[in-house]
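Appendix C reproduces, verbatim, an entry submitted by the partner laboratory led by Prof. M.T., so that reviewers can inspect both the input and the predicted structure.
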Amino acid sequence: MKRQTLSLLLSPLLVPLASCGATAAGDSSIQGSADFAETNPFTTREVAKFDEPWAIALLPGNAALVTEKKGKLKIVDLAKGTMIDVSGTPKVDYGGQGGFGDVALSPTFAKDSMIYLTWAEAGEGDTRGAVLGRAKLVRDGAAARIDGLEVIWRQSPKVTGRGHYSHRIKFSPDGKSLFLTSGDRQKFTPAQDLTVNLGKMLRLLPDGKPAAGNPFADKGGVSAEIWSYGHRNLLGVAFDGEGRLWDIEHGPAGGDELNLVKPGSNYGWPLVSNGDHYDGKPIPRHATRPDLAAPALSWNPVIAPGAMIICKCEKFPGWRGNALIAALGAQGLVRVTITGDTAREAERYNMDSRMRGIAEGADGKLWMIEDAPSGRLLEVVPR
């Protein structure tokens, strides 16, 4: 018999305590099997431990960049597990879901050594918001630093609270556009407001300016950044083999979503959801609003996603083209098959830990990070 995931034993009212409280590192219960596979088809090797790691970006030469929420950026040798601190990092507003966020290499990293970073930045009074910056990564023997850090984008407006920053980075396959997720900051209605960039998927140029051809460019201002709207807390973003954009986001008490993201589309939050508010107040379901974009897949109970890739999977050929989701609430790896515009959970694998991040190297190796004060970086290899 398959081992049943703990999330089924939690009532929806308990889910926020486990995953979306003010101090929780994640957010958000499935439409499909909620059982773990009897045996994981992989084993893991511990590479190193970090203090609340949030994101991983693989570097040339068998190394990786890892952000820690409290504000450190580290380079780890993936063979030896040795680490060095990268100096020159910005001051972050650490607390709740905020702090250092994503890290990504420029599509032209081999030429310019540029990296992109997101973090929570303090504003006036008790406000804060996510920002996107870029800088040159300089390695000098056993030391490393970032030079010329410049902020090229900010969430607007800065608001109170420390949740739903989202701030995931993904470059388009051609490297010409930068897609950035911007959460609703737990304020609900901004997700439907096209005059602010909260609750949106954004399409920018590598310098942070709005990309040409965005669907609301004629409105000017931050509206020109918007690719899609009506999003809640987007924690994973990936392109499939056809170049289509997918995101995965946290629902409230139920209703995590996997979306095929199309320009100009409204994904409904907070007008509709396949989950309800944490106080039990119902939210109309997606089926009640066919004029709004419905998810390709939703979960109830939630899996609480941490990050997502769509896998080339040289090492796991049976998974090729699948979405692999690092799951906080489901405490493991969730595999989803994609057929056309539809998606289905194929299987989930128990890892007994809240999993925050996942990356795939050019050599086909998979890497995952845990969401914990002593979160491990794991190499994932076929059994």
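The chain has one domain: 6-382. Additional entries are available on request from the coordinating office.
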